[in-house]
Amino acid sequence: MAKMNKYKQILGINRRNQEYIRPHNPPSAKKISDNKILCKKILHKADIKTPKTIKIIRNKRQLETLAWQDLPKSFVVKPNRGTGGNGIIVFYGQKKGKLSWIKSNHQVMTKEQIGIHFEKILDGVFSMGDTGDVVVIEERILNHPTLRDYSFRGVPDIRLIIFNRVPVMAMARFPTKMSEGKANLHAGGICTGIDLANGLTTESIQLKKRSILENTYKNVEFTSDLKENKPLKGIKIPYWDEILNIAIKCQDITNIGFLGIDIAIDADRGPLVLEVNSRPGLGIQMANNSGLRPKLEKLKDMNISSRKRASRLAKTLFGGEIEDEIESLSGKEIVNLVEKITVYHKIDKKAKKEYQTIRALLDTGITTSRIDEGLANRMGHKETIENFKNLGIPEEFKSVSEAKKIIKEYTENGDLNYRLAVITESAKIKVKPVVKTKIKIAGKQKEIETIVSSQKEMIYPILIGNKELKNYLIDASKTFTR
């Protein structure tokens, strides 16, 4: 196929409808995407996680008997057959002692005002075809720590386009002040392209000017609504391989051949499917500064035999475009998920070597790094570990507050020359000692805090936590090669 010029690479709405939606999205598949309740049921049967449903209101009689006092402090309201994010309201808190809830822009809505909004949903104001609809009340997703620092009072999500089982393009959508906490490009959210090969963010755009005729957009490099403006390029999306597999599985289950899918990452439950879309928008091309047409053409006549192959094709055919330039653009060092590091022993005349090289796991799921008790002993922390054991602190605690109380008692005595920390280990709440560990990672020496762990499941002797990874990009597609 001859190389298209840049403008011809863009997929327009008419071509999308004629060549991809009509031939590949049968009416039975569209019914699934157009009905959130039905779609959830189908996904749940396939063990695909979605936000939990709190309440469904099907008619005004149910609305009249709604037990408002039973609603949680935070929740999300959606029309069952809504389009383009219309009619969705996210409530982040409740006025103390009142049946009033607070939106992301701090605006308060009383139960009467929310009731009017529910009536509009039931009347089909926000829905396709202006026919009657159903109110869906869902749990509010808790932001994953990795993405929380890039979002203004909202939950970011990942939008992917899948065709012929293969993810062809992806972007992250970050809520902003302009979008009032919604992750929507046309409302003013920031949309950032994602490299399919490794889950790293690339270019970002945001609404510049809203117009009746045509919206205009601008390129942005940093967040602007938060306490600390952070670079948007080079963010490592958590659970990237799992997200690709979920997207492929959703297409298999729904039979939507040209599919858009929105996935959010909950702090506790991981990736959750927010929506599947049989008529996905095309703004994803602007976020990636790349057209969909040549990517889709490559896949038209392919026979993709398995999900594993589909995921591999997504990475090899449509990923890796910024791998060589991402380090210089972001100012961060690229490191591997499992990295060879050097650990230095404390000054000890008996020690045969002052250092040793080990494999460490870079674990974005923990804040403070962990060190295996055996390694900590060999590094010269034996006295600290024995002292901790002699304190007689219980093996586990019923709650974090109970564990913190114990730490406070020992800290106030002033007898300890090391810190104590609360951790969850093997699903149990424990108190552990913290020791200073000198390491060299990616050619740079640094001293870090490590919590001494006796967890048998620790495959690697050191886990490097989020606190030490701010200046690094983790490439999960590679292992230890350094």
Q: Low-confidence spans: pLDDT under 50, at least 5 residues?
A: 322-330, 476-482
Stated plainly, the CATH topology of the largest domain is called: D-amino Acid Aminotransferase, Chain A, domain 1
Count of domain modules = 3
Number of helices: 13
- What name goes with the CATH superfamily of the largest domain? ATP-grasp fold, B domain
Euclidean distance between termini CA atoms: 39 Å
Structural class: alpha+beta
Molecular structure report:
The chain is globular. The strands form four sheets. Strands 11-10-9-8-7-12-13 form a seven-stranded antiparallel sheet. Strands 1-6-2-3-4-5 form a six-stranded antiparallel sheet. It starts with 12 loop residues before the first helix and ends in a 7-residue tail after the last strand. The chain has helices at residues 13-24, 27-33, 36-45, 60-64, 111-122, 145-148, 240-254, 284-288, 293-299, 307-318, 326-330, 373-390, 400-413, and strands at residues 53-57, 75-79, 89-94, 100-103, 108-110, 135-138, 157-163, 166-174, 190-195, 200-209, 216-219, 258-266, 270-277, 333-336, 338-344, 355-362, 369-372, 419-425, 428-441, 444-453, 462-464, 472-475. The chain has three domains: 1-51 and 142-331, ATP-grasp fold, B domain (D-amino Acid Aminotransferase, Chain A, domain 1), CATH 3.30.470; 52-140, Dna Ligase, domain 1, CATH 3.30.1490; 333-475, Acid Proteases (Cathepsin D, subunit A, domain 1), CATH 2.40.70. 26% of the residues lie in helices and 29% in strands. The model is unreliable at 322-330 and 476-482 (pLDDT under 50). α7 packs across α10 (307-318).
